[in-house]
Structure formats: structure tokens, C-alpha cells
Design goal:
Blueprint (H helix, E strand, L loop, with lengths): L1 E7 L4 E7 L5 E5 L5 H10 L3 E6 L5 H4 L2 H8 L3 E3 L4 H4 L2 H7 L12 E2 L5 E4 L2 E7 L8 E5 L6 E5 L2 E2 L2 E2 L9 H10 L9 E4 L5 E2 H7 L1 H4 L3
Parallel strand pairs: 3-4, 4-5, 5-6, 10-13
Antiparallel strand pairs: 1-2, 2-3, 7-8, 8-9, 9-10, 11-12, 13-14
The chain binds zinc ion (2 copies).
Length: 213
């Protein structure tokens, strides 16, 4: 699998383009802004995008949808528990004093255990609420080492804030314990902001994770 990361928008969110090297089929995860730039990256590699997946409904992860979704005409996927947040993009925008992005229709709700496939690649949706009610992580078990896209649940050295838009500290700690701590240490974590990391590194240096050991 090929993984491209583009850091986009005012909030410096990581958009991921995951593609199958054999078939050039791909998915886009969290187009948080700069839709044109994401499109360019897709076209440059001649990728055939099958779906756009949102780890959650926060403004900094969905602001590129209005450009990307019509241009690609592929299904837009999100967990249904983040729909109330997503349907209130104007409130989110006002909170950060930024212009409200235009939302697009969510075509398909995804939930724990769902598989998403593109080319030879399959990944699994894991429900990891806490930063938001419908937050998901996306696990690629077939990669070696495994890869997980963590959205805003786990960052290098930290976790997503839980004081905004449906956040719940107890829920995020439960997601960390039940999902992240169960993964092998060598699993590579690609977060919604900042650098990639590994589960082993976070167990050691991330106080939110190490307190659960
Ligand atoms: Zn977020
Ligand atoms: Zn974010």
C-alpha cells in the first residue's frame, strides 16, 4: 500500500491518500481543506478513488469535502454518531472565527467492524469515541507492520481534546485502553495532526497511554 500525507488547511490537519500499488485504487481520509491540492495529488498519481472516509465530523477534517466530493463523485463515509456535529459546521466555524465550509451529503454511515476495500487492500473501521461521539480509527491489519489512522484520538505524545463538540474524557480513555493498547507495539500510528508514531513509543512516552498500563 502507498500512503501519502498532505497537511492541509488552517488547522494543519493530516489528509491521507491510501492507494493500492497494483491497481491504483485509493481512498481519501479526512480532506480537511485545500481540496484542489488534494485533487492534484490524486490526479498526478492517476489514482482511482473509491471513497472518501471521515474519521470524524470536525471542521478541520471535512472542509475539503465541498471540492473533493463533487469532483470525484464517490461515496462520502462517516459514523452516524458524528452527524449532529457535522450538521453544525457553522457553529464549529463560529467557535474558531473561520468561514463555515459547505457540507456535502454523507452517503454512507460506517460503524465498528465495517471493511473498506480498494484494490488489493482492506481496512477495518474501529469505533473510537471520546474526542467525538462518532470518531473512528482505521486499521490496516494486512500491512507489516500494521498501520492505524487514529484521527484525533491519539497523537504523538498526546490525545485529542475532549472539551469540545461532544467530547468525553472517559470515553477516549476507554478507546485507548480497549483499542490502542491491544495493538502490537510496532503498529504505526498516523494521526490527524502532527507526526506519525508507534504504539510502543506512545506506551512509553504518552502520559495518557502509560497511565493505563
Ligand atoms: Zn477533531
Ligand atoms: Zn483535528
Amino acid at each position: 500500500m502507498r500512503l501519502d500525507m498532505l497537511t492541509v488547511g488552517l488547522f494543519q490537519s493530516n489528509c491521507y491518500i491510501l492507494s493500492c500499488e497494483r491497481t491504483n485504487e485509493a481512498i481519501v481520509v479526512d480532506p480537511g481543506g485545500e481540496g484542489e491540492r488534494i485533487l492534484e495529488a490524486i490526479n498526478r498519481q492517476k489514482l482511482r478513488v473509491k471513497a472518501i472516509v471521515n474519521t470524524h465530523g470536525h471542521i478541520d477534517h471535512v472542509s475539503g469535502l465541498s471540492v473533493l466530493a463533487p469532483a470525484l463523485s464517490v461515496p462520502v463515509l462517516m459514523h452516524k454518531d458524528d452527524l449532529p456535529i457535522y450538521n453544525n459546521l457553522s457553529t464549529q466555524a463560529a467557535m474558531f472565527s473561520v468561514p463555515a465550509p459547505t457540507g456535502v451529503k454523507i452517503d454512507q454511515f460506517i460503524e465498528a467492524g465495517d471493511k473498506i476495500e480498494f484494490g488489493d487492500i482492506a481496512c477495518e473501521v474501529i469505533h473510537t469515541p471520546g474526542h467525538s461521539p462518532g470518531g473512528i480509527s482505521i486499521l490496516f491489519r494486512g500491512e507489516s507492520p500494521q498501520i492505524i489512522l487514529s484521527g484525533d484520538t491519539l497523537f504523538m505524545g498526546s490525545i485529542g481534546r475532549t472539551d469540545l463538540f461532544g467530547g468525553d474524557y472517559d470515553a477516549i480513555m476507554k478507546s485507548l485502553r480497549n483499542v490502542y493498547l491491544q495493538l502490537p507495539d510496532e503498529t504505526v500510528v498516523y494521526p490527524g495532526h502532527g507526526d506519525k508514531t508507534t504504539i510502543g513509543f506512545e506506551k512509553r512516552y504518552n502520559p495518557f497511554l502509560s497511565q493505563l498500563l
